[in-house]
Amino acid sequence: MGNAKSGALSKEVLEDLKTNTRYSEEELCRWYESFQRQCPDGRISRAEFEKIYGTFFPNSDPQGYARHVFRSFDTNDDGTLDFREYIIALHLTSSGKTHLKLEWAFSLFDVDRNGEVSKNEVLEIITAIFKMIPPEEQKLLPEDENSPQKRTDKLWAYFNKGDNG
């Protein structure tokens, strides 16, 4: 990925990220320096990612959802995120084009990576999301979507799917 001797971002990765994200060379270099300080080996493990994710949701349980987000961004399926995967993840979730966000959302819900999203997969993701909603806020949800199963049923019906998909 980077130059092993200097720890610098490789030209190939830099050019790829400049082409495929909205970030400038200067921004990417700053991100890379920060990434290297936090992850000296150049990779974020799933456990580290879950810990970082948890800091954004201190009063809930984001571990399950973070695991799914991590899986969707670990494009080479090696159990870690390298700098390129990390930046692509940031770009997609913050400023990526709509069709790329939709592709990412599909990959998030396609838990078994078989190219289809089942009702059980939707329920798994919705359940993980519900664990991030504080119980007092869950009580404020409309009756027809105040549980993971009800929300899944409503979403599934919206997309006009039968019980089996």
Automatic annotation (TrEMBL):
Domain EF-hand: 61-96, 97-132
SMART domains xref list: EFh
Domain of life: Eukaryota
A Pfam family reported for this protein in Swiss-Prot or TrEMBL: EF-hand_5
Keyword Protease belongs to the record: no
GO molecular function, one term: calcium ion binding
Keywords linked to the UniProt accession: Calcium, Lipoprotein, Metal-binding, Myristate, Repeat
Similarity section: Belongs to the recoverin family.
Protein name, UniProt field: VISI protein
Taxon lineage: Eukaryota, Metazoa, Chordata, Craniata, Vertebrata
